[in-house]
Design brief:
The chain has 402 residues and is mostly beta strands. It has 3 helices and 21 strands. Strand 10 and strand 11 form a beta hairpin. The protein is elongated and about 100 Å long.
């Protein structure tokens, strides 16, 4: 269950969404060597599996009375200050008579674009809805080795599948007839993104003494090839008619995600309790866009300037009571934005707990996790809403040994 609460123009609106699916599935095949000593290679293991890394399910509603501006003002400004039409905004507004062009009688003065909102008292109702769905999943092929029961080395090759869809709708209406000739308009945008990425990981785990394990790993960037399919439409209801217009397109490009580095430590007490700590470093400013027909120079410069390094921390514990165990954990993911950006404090925190049972043949456990995050969402210009998102997830895991 994913719940959202927004505050826009001093008005609070809430919504929620639901999602189900398989988060993880895997198979491990160990091969014990013929080595009879405690030194050298002891076990080789091959495994493959699937992990759902992200769930993009979310519904957000923003609603309020705007007494100072309109999205239509942005269309007018863009049309008057850019030499090229934007076929997914300005042109839609022009073709549906939401904005219009005024010729001048002067031979030296050019005409200009205007709207019914010019010199109005505003006061129209605005509603913005943002609905997202999809997931990021990864298929993993792993190879690991146990050396002298003290060192564990592993590597993996990952294939990530990305599927994301976002639909946002902006509606403005004038029920009190404040704006002359204008009744309402609806501006819709749909984006569907899908693609495939590849990466590799390598890590090492050392057990210097029986009760301590220390580890480190490096994740290469994920090299994505993506396709965007997008469309926009405008419907207007004016005193002199009802109009609609739409536009669509697609684009292929590539994204290189930043690399990751992790360090971990685990402390055990007589096989009855364990405490784990993971630290992860990600520098989002190293992400890059590229394409065959566009250099993305300005966009990559913006990524370097607006994004920075994030420090992520995960802490977990487990207590064993015979065949039963209890687990608890806390995670903190730092904001990827640099200081001074609107969402510099957009961090994510999560707390989880669970219980389970295991024996020599099988294990089963159940867990619940609660996460919370905040962000500032910009509708247009400087108009923004504060959005709080909470997620409550229930999971069950079954493990079988052959």
């Amino acid at each position: 269950t994913i719940g959202t609460s927004s505050n826009y123009l001093n008005n609070t609106a809430t919504d929620n969404a639901y999602s189900m699916g398989i988060d993880q599935i895997g198979f491990v095949m160990p091969f014990k060597t013929q080595n009879t000593s405690q030194d050298g290679l002891q076990i080789l293991s091959f495994s493959f599996g699937y992990n759902k890394l992200r769930d993009y399910t979310s519904n957000v509603v923003m609603d309020g009375i705007n007494n100072s501006n309109s999205l239509v003002d942005e269309f007018v400004y863009s049309a008057n200050n850019n030499s090229d039409w934007d076929p997914f905004s300005d042109q839609l507004a022009y073709e549906t008579y939401l904005i219009d062009f005024m010729m001048t009688d002067s031979a030296t003065e050019a005409g200009y674009f205007f709207s019914d909102f010019d010199n109005s008292n505003y006061g129209q109702n605005q509603i913005r809805t943002v609905n997202t769905s999809g997931k990021l999943g990864e298929f993993l092929f792993n190879l690991g080795a146990n050396i002298s029961n003290k060192f564990y080395v592993g590597g993996s090759f990952g294939i990530q599948k990305y599927d994301y869809e976002e639909t946002w709708t902006h509606k403005e209406s004038d029920p009190d007839d404040r704006i002359e000739y204008f009744n309402s308009f609806v501006f819709r945008n749909n984006l569907r993104m899908n693609g495939t990425g590849y990466n590799a990981k390598i890590g090492i785990l050392a057990q210097p003494v029986q009760w301590v394990r220390l580890g480190a790993s490096i994740h290469t960037p994920t090299f994505f090839t993506l396709r965007d399919d997008f469309s926009s439409s405008m419907d207007t209801n004016l005193d002199f008619g009802i109009y609609d217009y739409s536009s669509s397109g697609d684009y292929n490009y590539k994204i290189t995600s930043p690399f990751k580095a992790t360090a971990s430590a685990a402390f055990m007490y007589k096989s009855r309790a364990m405490l784990t700590i993971d630290y992860e470093y990600v520098d989002y400013s190293n992400a890059r866009l590229s394409a065959n027909d566009y250099d993305f120079y300005d966009e990559n410069q913006a990524i370097s300037q607006r994004y920075g390094a994030a420090n992520n921390l995960r802490v977990g514990g487990e207590a064993v009571f015979g065949p039963f165990f209890l687990r608890g954990g806390y995670s903190y993911y730092g904001s990827p934005y640099v200081e001074g950006e609107a969402n510099e404090n957009m961090d994510l925190s999560m707390i989880s707990g669970g219980a389970g049972y295991r024996n020599n043949r099988m294990s089963i456990d159940f867990a619940v996790a609660h996460s919370n995050s905040e962000q500032q969402y910009f509708l247009y210009g400087n108009n923004s809403a504060n959005i709080n998102s909470t997620a409550l997830r229930f999971t069950g895991t079954l493990g079988i040994r052959f």
